[in-house]
Amino acid sequence: MAIDSHSPSAEFLDLILSCVPAFVLAADTELRFTAIRGTVLHEIGMNDAERSRLIGTPADEYFTGPQGEQLIAHARAGLRGESTSFEGHWQDQWFMAHIGPLRDARDDIVGVVCVGMDITRRRKLEKELEAERRALTDAQRLAELGSWELDIRSGMVRISAELAHLLGIPHTKREIPFSAMERALVPQDYAMLQHEKERALSTCGAYDFDHQIVRPDGSVRHVRSRGHVECGPDGTPLRCMGTMLDMTVRVEAQRTAELLAYHDPLTGLPNRWLLRDRLSQAIALARRERRKFYLLFIDLDNFKRINDTMGHAEGDVLLGEVAQRLRHATRGTDTVARMGGDEFVVIFTELQNDDQFEVAISKLRTVFQTPFRLRGGEYTVTASMGVAVFPDDALTEDELLQDADAAMYEAKQEGRNAIRRHQGAAFAATLRRVQLEVDLPRAMRQAEFRIRYQPVVDARTMKISGVEALLRWDHPSRGLLLPVSFLDAMEDTEFISQIGEWVIRESCAQVAKWRRRFGLELRLAVNVSARQLSHNHFPRMLAGALREGGLDPGALEIELTETTIVRDMEWASATLKEVREIGVGVAIDDFGTGYNSLSYLKHFPVTALKIDRSFVGEIGVDAFDEAISSAVAALGRSLRLRVIAEGVETRKQFDSLRALGCDELQGYYFAPPLDAAHMTARLAIRGAG
């Protein structure tokens, strides 16, 4: 069964191939052309007239010469049932191609098909990059700064004035034993130099590595050493030359930047960002080794009084002294961090039981037994402390910090200068969750669930390009609940699938009405849970909801979070492939918050990325959040994915995100989530503007 060049499917294939630099060739068992598709073939002279002429012509009459023979050989292998992939060129164009057998419904081979991509531009860029790399390498090797040349037979090395200055020796001393240069290395780097030097001598090659040197005055410099060995025709090393670049300023600047980014500038302790990283590592280690660890939350009592009476400068002195004492009262394996203000956190990762923790706490509380010397005299300062234990009290970073914080407040309420372990919060949260599970059947029967629609705006035109359907629970006693309050409880029941299907069907029908009434190309985004995605009928349900609601499949996009797809990546990949075959889009929600986010783009048919609101909140203020948002936007552009930023609340955030290249924006700056009536009114008054 050959590809019919006049079938509607061929027209659709032409439409697809007109958008990408790709082509499709097909031939029968005699290797006569049966289909030639792809506008990119114009580059090698296959215009429409030429392609029509070639149908029915043997392929080996067109593909001649060494390159043509290679292609025909791959085609014959396809007739034998083999599939091959290769790169080759034809008439100054480079292609990446895959050739394999073409089979009919009975699995008989009826021809071969070749699918290819024009990679000429990529090849050109690779050549340009390789040329630039060689030029840069030569320039570095021949640089005069810190240069040296070794006479291998005598072992003496002639050095430039710049290198003499870097080594800290007199400029007049221009020829020294090579061993003198080696002795300048710090001991831990000496073995590496020996290894690199021996390798270069044995291979007549080069070496390049970073290390430290100690000058005669005891100062240490960070340098980058490069060396190159020249050999004679018989492979005997003749001479060795190289350069040494002083990297001290750059290394120290990098260390300073890292210190400022992850350490509190006042106390030098890890800040809240580094604390979270350490806490995440502690959780991972404790889970792997199946043991507990302790988190201590410390808040100074009446610190505001010191600030008010003695001034913030003296308050800063006190905080610095507290930090120093806490560091001395803990072990090197513990983490002491400043959360902000007068709040400190300690992570004890090496304690095995409560008895050891009590010993550690007794030592730590001595920090506050000795008065602090401030301007005007000595002051006694006390602290309230709260404890949370992993995994007994909580299992996540946020829960541990919240429990320890709550315990600290209990200590303050009981008179301060005390330590408490909070147990009520976890129990109360469990109780609320159980109650919600009990309320779910009634909520389903009495239709307590509501759908809200939040507009999504085109960043370039400022017009409404779509809406996101958001679920709300109108609870009779607790009011309107957001999903964060009830989704976990719902996820453990079959109600999540029922309610999720209801949201999809209702919102598809509603958006279809808006599209027809207002003549808008609105797109609908709907969140999908792990349990929904795991159902065998999910793709069929989507197709049915679109058909019943009268909504074009291309107008629907399902949004998935990291936890949704990591449960069973193989199953999720297969399901999402079916979803894309229907024509429905797939967006990764909260992108940038998971460790495996990039791997999702490789394994799943993603059409859009949503920048998490946690990065948007501080954009324009926090350089790290802006860098993350910029990286996600650039990644989306390079992969031809739409990039949506959610949680936009200010003009500054809007301007920054639009400048970064986000395609669409969503948040309270444009509109809060609206019920269908208010959304209809907004569209009627303003259209899509």
Sum up the overall morphology in one term. Answer: flat
- Poorly predicted spans: 1-6, 140-144
**Count of individual helical segments:** 26
Radius of gyration: 34 Å
Extended strand count: 27
Task: Indicate the structural class.
Answer: alpha+beta
Share of residues in strands: 25-35%
Name the helicity range.
40-55%
Q: What distance lies between the first and last C-alpha atoms, to the nearest angstrom?
A: 51 Å
Q: What is the residue-averaged pLDDT?
A: 82
Largest sheet: 8 strands, mixed, barrel
What order do the strands of the largest sheet run in, or round the barrel if closed?
19-20-22-23-24-25-26-27
Give the helices and strands, then pairings.
Blueprint: H1 8-17, E1 22-28, E2 33-37, H2 48-54, H3 59-62, H4 65-79, E3 84-90, E4 93-103, E5 109-118, H5 120-141, E6 147-151, E7 156-159, H6 161-167, E8 175-177, H7 178-183, H8 187-203, E9 206-214, E10 220-231, E11 237-246, H9 248-262, H10 272-289, E12 293-300, H11 303-310, H12 312-329, E13 335-340, E14 343-348, H13 354-365, E15 372-374, E16 377-379, E17 383-390, H14 397-413, E18 419-421, H15 424-445, E19 449-458, E20 464-475, E21 479-481, H16 483-491, H17 495-518, E22 523-527, H18 530-534, H19 538-549, E23 556-560, H20 562-566, H21 569-582, E24 585-591, H22 597-603, E25 608-611, H23 613-616, H24 623-638, E26 642-646, H25 651-660, E27 664-666, H26 676-686
Parallel strand pairs: 17-18, 20-22, 22-23, 23-24, 24-25, 25-26, 26-27
Antiparallel strand pairs: 1-2, 1-5, 3-4, 4-5, 6-7, 6-11, 7-8, 9-10, 10-11, 12-14, 12-17, 13-14, 15-16, 19-20, 19-27, 20-21
Helix pairs in contact: 11-12, 15-16, 17-19, 19-21
